[in-house]
Inverse folding.
């Protein structure tokens, strides 16, 4: 299996299906964040929004190997502490309801690490040093994503059609959850999509 490097299997991969299904939401989030992350205040709101999403999902996604949600949450809390900012938790967040939705949700969380490296550079340009969360996996970020995609493809190969559909819905929902959290933190404007 070589779903990540663009080899011929790419077109048939489930990761490709997830990327296609969520492309518009990803693009919209990238755009909104690139406008909003323009200083310490925006960066704090980004960390708080991300913490809302990850802490709400910690127990729902506990069973999935390699996600390291606990380590991500701790890194977020430490970054916020360093910036003297309070944490946000979100009891009203919606979380995956079954293992299939969890795979889709996990895909979004794993993928966010790739964009996170871009954001870490932006934070450095802004003179912000509290980037434990964004740089958690450092040079291993892509390797971790590839390892996740390999596990995702193994799951998808034996999943039923309804399970794969549920995973796509879980990924779409997770993008909406990030967006909702950033809106609640007043980082980005509300948008209906
Ligand atoms: C919380 C916000 C974000 C989430 C949830 C998110 C989610 C994702 C996901 C799921 C992927 C994997 C796509 C694939 O299968 O290839 C991805 C990749 C990527 N994202 Fe984001 N992303 C976020 C923010 C950003 C931002 C703000 C940027 C740019 C400033 C960005 C840039 C990228 C890049 C460059 C990749 C790698 C694409 C590739 O190499 O194929 N992301 N992101």
């Amino acid at each position: 299996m070589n779903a990540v490097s663009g080899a011929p299997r790419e077109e048939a991969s489930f990761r490709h299906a997830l990327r296609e299904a969520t492309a518009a939401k990803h693009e919209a989030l990238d755009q909104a964040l690139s406008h909003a992350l323009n200083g310490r205040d925006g960066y704090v709101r980004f960390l708080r929004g991300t913490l809302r999403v990850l802490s709400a999902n910690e127990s729902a996604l506990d069973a999935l190997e390699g996600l390291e949600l606990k380590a991500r949450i701790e890194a977020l809390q430490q970054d916020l502490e360093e910036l003297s900012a309070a944490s946000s938790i979100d009891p009203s967040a919606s979380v995956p309801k079954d293992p299939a939705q969890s795979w889709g949700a996990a895909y979004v969380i794993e993928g966010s690490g790739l964009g996170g490296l871009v954001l870490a550079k932006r934070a450095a340009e802004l003179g912000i040093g509290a980037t434990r969360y964004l740089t958690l996996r450092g040079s291993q970020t892509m390797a971790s994503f590839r390892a996740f995609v390999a596990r995702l493809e193994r799951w998808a190969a034996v999943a039923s059609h309804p399970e794969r559909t549920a995973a796509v819905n879980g990924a779409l929902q997770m993008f909406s959850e990030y967006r909702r959290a950033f809106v609640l933190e007043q980082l980005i404007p509300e948008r209906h999509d």
